[in-house]
Amino acid sequence: MSAGRVAVAAAGAVLLAAASVQAHHAFSAEFDVTKPMKLEGTLVKWEMINPHSWFHIDVKGPDGQPVRWLIEGGSPNQLIRLGVTKNTLATGMELLIEGYLARDGTNKGVGRNFTLADGRRLFLGGSAPGTDSSPVVK
Asked: pTM of the prediction?
């Protein structure tokens, strides 16, 4: 292989590595440990994609209309090891989510756990540290 092709291949590898590092972030880069949250809402959609799962939750806003929130969970493999599978949660389920708000102020957070209507608590893995001192957002 010529030196030029080796240089192009090396540059491509560096760019791909940088893109994957940027896509997978540290907790503190996106979420704020000083802003714990509790959300009560309805599961609308669940995406089991790497490196994180995403739970789309409708939370009743101040005007009574649903407000969509995105909650990050652990990787699909991590959730499955914790007992959270596609058979555990179904769209339309009511959930209480504990976690931390996004730094950018959007309707996004990282989940620490869910509590189901029957009282079962499901841990979501990922990078969220634990706390029990957060106010409920309804």
From this structure: 0.73
